[in-house]
């Protein structure tokens, strides 16, 4: 009888242990809700883009339990767009952003509402071919570089850029061999029509134009330098350098006075000769406006733009 009671006690103890073990096992196996993960894989942190480029934002997002319900993109903490299905790729036109630093943030949200985020910093840069900070002289904003190919600026203030015939939008090389912006080599010695330089034929980048005679008259005096050859106008932070790159003759496009003078077109027609345009000329001794015979419209002169 005593032995039977002891066996019953052992059975009770074993059952109790099994119950505890089962409870512990079940407690450990309870499913845990893991939050999602997300990473911006492109662009790289501190990447740089020109305003003319598109920015592709590539994102990886995952969750151990459940699924990704949405991935949201923010630019400088302002909602830009979202995706609800893979692939989580976004496109930003850099031209929509101001030049400078910007923060891109993505936020992944799973079906339970849990969130994860990833951020990178990018920089948007002006296109150096079409952007110029400019300087103010006489209340007019001048570009700091000559026009190169139509719609673009030369690389530096000292760069020659290209020559242009009055009221024409075809650039000509400032050094031999003679070649134009359309890869042609046949000089056109005819005279362009019109009473002023038209917008359609203006070679300046967007936001800029060929200056008028009155605007060019604001560039008085100036200081000549031999290296680099040219004249500097204004002063301080508003200094304008015009390189003395010479010009091309009206008949055959021959180069003249490279390094000893500079001639720059205005958009204004000569009041004395309808075959001539007004131009600004300088050398190592002086600077002046040319409105007569030396401004024959088929000559190739430089162009220095002013802001519209």
Detail the poorly predicted runs: 1-6, 11-30
Spell out the helices and strands N to C: HEEEEEEEEEEEEEHEEEEEEEEE
What share of the residues does DSSP label as strand, in percent? 35-45%
Number of structurally distinct domains: 2
Oligomer: single chain
What's the rounded overall pLDDT mean?
A: 89
The percentage helix is 10-25%
Side by side, the strands of the main sheet go: 2-8-7-4-5
Distance between the termini: 114 Å
**Number of helical segments with 4 or more residues:** 2
Please tally the β strands and state the result.
Answer: 22
Task: Give the helix/strand class.
Answer: mainly beta
Q: What's the main sheet like? A: 5 strands, mixed
Write the layout of secondary structure elements.
Elements: H1 2-28, E1 37-42, E2 47-50, E3 54-62, E4 68-75, E5 78-83, E6 88-93, E7 100-110, E8 115-125, E9 135-137, E10 140-142, E11 163-164, E12 171-172, E13 208-209, H2 213-216, E14 223-226, E15 229-235, E16 238-243, E17 247-248, E18 255-256, E19 261-269, E20 277-283, E21 287-290, E22 306-307
Parallel strand pairs: 2-8
Antiparallel strand pairs: 1-3, 3-6, 4-5, 4-7, 7-8, 9-10, 11-12, 13-22, 14-15, 15-16, 17-18, 19-20, 20-21
């Amino acid at each position: 009888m005593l032995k039977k009671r002891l066996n019953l006690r052992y059975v009770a103890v074993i059952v109790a242990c099994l119950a505890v073990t089962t409870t512990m096992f079940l407690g450990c196996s309870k499913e845990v809700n893991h939050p999602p993960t997300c990473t911006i894989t492109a662009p790289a942190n501190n990447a740089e883009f020109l305003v003319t480029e598109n920015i592709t934002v590539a994102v990886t997002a995952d969750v151990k339990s459940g699924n990704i319900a949405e991935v949201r993109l923010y630019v400088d903490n302002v909602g830009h767009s979202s995706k609800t299905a893979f692939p989580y790729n976004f496109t930003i036109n850099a031209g929509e952003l101001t030049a400078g630093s910007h923060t891109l943030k993505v936020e992944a949200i799973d079906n339970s509402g849990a969130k994860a985020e990833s951020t990178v910093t990018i920089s948007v840069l002006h296109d150096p071919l079409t952007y110029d900070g400019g300087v103010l002289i006489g209340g007019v904003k001048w570009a700091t570089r000559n026009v190169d190919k139509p719609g673009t600026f030369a690389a530096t203030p000292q760069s020659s850029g290209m020559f242009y015939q009055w009221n024409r939008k075809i650039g000509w090389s400032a050094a031999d061999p003679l070649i134009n912006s359309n890869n042609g080599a046949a000089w056109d010695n005819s005279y362009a029509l019109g009473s002023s330089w038209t917008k359609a034929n203006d070679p300046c980048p967007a936001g800029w134009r060929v200056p008028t005679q009155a605007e060019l008259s604001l560039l008085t005096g100036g200081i000549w330098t031999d290296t680099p050859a040219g004249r500097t106008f204004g002063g301080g932070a508003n200094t304008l350098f015009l390189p003395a790159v010479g010009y091309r003759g009206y008949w055959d496009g021959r180069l003249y006075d490279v390094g000893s003078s500079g001639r720059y077109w205005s958009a204004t027609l000569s009041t004395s000769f309808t075959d001539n345009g007004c131009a600004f000329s300088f050398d190592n001794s002086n600077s002046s406006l040319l409105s007569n015979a030396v401004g024959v419209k088929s000559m190739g002169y430089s162009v220095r733009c002013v802001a519209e």
